[in-house]
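Task: sequence design from structure.
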């Protein structure tokens, strides 16, 4: 019985497999027939008679379009298969075909065919024909299938023509209509999207989304549109309005979005690599996980945008407004952020390795845990900024304003802070080995236990600076003003104190081993010298100390 059961199972599997193969063969045959019919129709629709009139009248054309395209939506592989065959054909007349299909599209957009009387209603006639074949389909579905299929063909003709010098001026398709001086935005495509989505949410994007690449949508109004996963790569969206639109996972790589409005739009996980986004409005948009690598965002408005984990590697964000933006975990390595406004932005754990932040405004921004290794922040405003545990190794901070910045645990080894302002900043426990601080203003800064070994702090202002127990071995403090500074317990071995001002300095328990000083150095008012350790013999003799 067990053997009989196994034989029976194998027989069922064989029959099912044979049935599937038969269906596949049948489907392939139908597709081949459809491809031939589609190519033939596209050639016939553009043919002229001896009197330069179209062989197929407008009425016949419209009927044939519904006959051929009302059943279902064109698939990418169908279009990919028929396009090269059509282009290679001697019967292919792209300009005339485009003109006829565009006229049909404009009339379809106005609802002319679906609103016609029953005797002239082409979508209704096609619906009844399909229903007679036991194919369940509604009137709107037939009309939408037909219109979207014609739109796909027009988009493909436009894309092909723009690659041909002799056609690019003759075939220019504006899916949303061409904007004029008195009509800045066009909404035709938005109406098409909403009409298509009336039968199923996302229908337009599913059917046409892959064919939008390299299309011309300049000035189109697409606010609140559902364009999830749409492919706009290389498209022209200059000045388009996509505010509040759902563009999750869309592809805008290499697209032109200059001056476009995408405020409050959902752009999570979108691809904007290499796109031109100059002066774009992305305020309050959801751009989490977006790819901006190599994009041009000069003067873009990203106020309060969610850019969590976004990739800006090599992007140009100069003069961009990122006030209050969330850039946590963002990848900004080698990006250009000069003159950018990052006031109160969240850049925690962001990667800014090698980024250009010259003259950027980072006031009150959160850069805790961020990587700014080898970044350039010349003249940047970092006042009251959170820099807990931030990697600032070999960073250029010349003339930067770090007043009251919170730098606890930051790594500043080898950083250049020449002429920087660190008034009131907390640098306690900060790694500052080899840092350049000459001409910097360190008044009132807390540097207790800081590692400043080998640092250049020449000609700096250190009024009342707390350097207690700091490691200043081998540091250069020549020409600096240390009035009222606290240096008790500090390691000043091999330190250069030539021409420094030491009025009111506390050197209690400081290590002065092999320290260098100038003969004219004023020691009057210096406190704690009697408690200092390893005081050089020459200094003892100069000051009359035992």
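Answer:
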């Amino acid at each position: 019985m067990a053997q009989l059961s196994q034989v029976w199972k194998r027989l069922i599997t064989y029959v099912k497999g044979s049935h599937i193969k038969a269906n596949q063969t049948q489907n392939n045959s139908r597709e081949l027939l459809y491809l031939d019919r589609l190519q033939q129709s596209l050639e016939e629709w553009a043919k002229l008679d001896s009197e330069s009139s179209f062989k197929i009248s407008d009425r016949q054309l419209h009927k044939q379009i519904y006959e051929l395209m009302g059943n279902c939506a064109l698939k990418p592989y169908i279009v990919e298969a028929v396009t090269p065959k059509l282009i290679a054909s001697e019967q292919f007349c792209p300009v005339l075909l485009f003109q006829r299909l565009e006229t049909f599209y404009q009339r379809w957009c106005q609802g002319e065919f679906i609103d016609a009387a029953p005797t002239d209603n082409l979508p209704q006639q096609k619906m009844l024909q399909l229903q007679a074949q036991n194919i369940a389909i509604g009137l709107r579905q037939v009309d939408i299938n037909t219109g979207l299929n014609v739109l796909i063909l027009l988009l493909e003709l436009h894309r092909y023509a723009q690659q041909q010098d002799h056609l690019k001026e003759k075939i220019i398709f504006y899916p949303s209509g061409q904007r004029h001086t008195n009509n800045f935005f066009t909404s035709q495509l938005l109406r098409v999207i909403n009409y298509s989505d009336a039968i199923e949410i996302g229908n337009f994007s599913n059917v046409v989304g892959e064919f939008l690449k390299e299309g011309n949508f300049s000035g189109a109004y697409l606010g609140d549109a559902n364009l999830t996963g749409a492919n706009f790569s290389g498209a022209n969206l200059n000045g388009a309005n996509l505010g509040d639109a759902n563009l999750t996972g869309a592809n805008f790589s290499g697209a032109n979005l200059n001056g476009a409005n995408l405020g409050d739009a959902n752009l999570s996980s979108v691809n904007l690599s290499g796109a031109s986004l100059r002066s774009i409005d992305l305020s309050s948009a959801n751009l989490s996980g977006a790819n901006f690598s190599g994009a041009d965002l000069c003067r873009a408005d990203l106020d309060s945008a969610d850019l969590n984990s976004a990739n800006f590697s090599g992007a140009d964000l100069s003069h961009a407004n990122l006030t209050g933006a969330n850039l946590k975990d963002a990848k900004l390595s080698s990006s250009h952020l000069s003159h950018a406004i990052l006031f109160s932005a969240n850049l925690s754990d962001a990667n800014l390795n090698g980024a250009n932040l010259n003259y950027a405004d980072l006031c009150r921004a959160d850069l805790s845990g961020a990587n700014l290794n080898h970044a350039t922040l010349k003249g940047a405003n970092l006042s009251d900024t959170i820099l807990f545990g931030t990697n600032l190794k070999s960073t250029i901070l010349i003339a930067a304003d770090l007043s009251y910045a919170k730098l606890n645990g930051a790594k500043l080894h080898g950083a250049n802070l020449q002429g920087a302002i660190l008034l009131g900043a907390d640098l306690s426990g900060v790694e500052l080995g080899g840092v350049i601080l000459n001409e910097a203003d360190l008044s009132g800064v807390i540097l207790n236990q800081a590692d400043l070994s080998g640092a250049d702090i020449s000609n700096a202002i250190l009024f009342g600076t707390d350097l207690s127990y700091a490691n200043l071995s081998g540091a250069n403090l020549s020409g600096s003003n240390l009035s009222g500074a606290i240096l008790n317990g500090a390691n000043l071995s091999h330190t250069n104190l030539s021409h420094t001002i030491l009025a009111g300095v506390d050197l209690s328990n400081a290590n002065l081993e092999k320290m260098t000083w100038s003969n004219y150095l004023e020691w009057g008012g210096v406190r704690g010298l009697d408690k200092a350790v390893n005081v050089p013999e020459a200094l003892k003799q100069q000051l009359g100390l035992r």
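The chain has a mean pLDDT of 92.
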